[in-house]
Amino acid sequence: MNSKIEKLIKQFAKLPRLGSRAAQRIVLALLQDKTGKAINLANALLEAAESIRPCPVCGVLTDVETGVCEFCRDASRANGQICVVRDLSDVWTLEKSAVFQGRYHIIGGLISGIAGMTPEDLNISKLPERITAEKVSEVIFALPNTVEGKTTQHYIMSVIGLDAGVKFSELASGVPLGGDLDYLDDGTLTLAFGGRKTL
User: Fold this and answer.
1) Domain regions of the chain by residue span
2) E-state strands within the chain
3) Once rounded to an integer, what is the mean pLDDT over residues 93-110?
4) Could you tell me which CATH class the domain 75-198 is placed in?
């Protein structure tokens, strides 16, 4: 196989949830397409890479020209609630279901000894400052229902402090053990969010 094609397949295979076989199918489809999809994709990726950055407040990806993201700019979402999520796909899942109207805080992963992910690797240190500045009254954890998710949740609570005057809650029924938000249907997510329990 051509070394350039092999290199491209390896790059695609590094993407989440894409194995080498799926990466190979994508690369071949793009290279064999006669309508210029490969060039359009490359240009779109380059443009996004140059102009999209994490919001300095919450971590949601946004255009660098706007400064902060749409959620942080929207005054109507300053309702005293911050939802802590692992990544941007969780934000999209919650937004699609329309179960949450507050602001988000993306931490960018989960504490995991196996994966070598430590608290210092995550976007956690800014949370106490945000809670004070935005007069947050409730921190809602929408992290995976896994050992890593619970470990991360307890660590964040310890960083914020139980005496900070903030209510901590987590999603309730409907989130299975080991479950991720992006695998839940809107109805299940609505039940889980609406019936969240205080920690």
Assistant:
1) 75-198
2) 52-54, 61-63, 81-85, 103-106, 138-141, 167-170, 197-198
3) 93
4) alpha beta
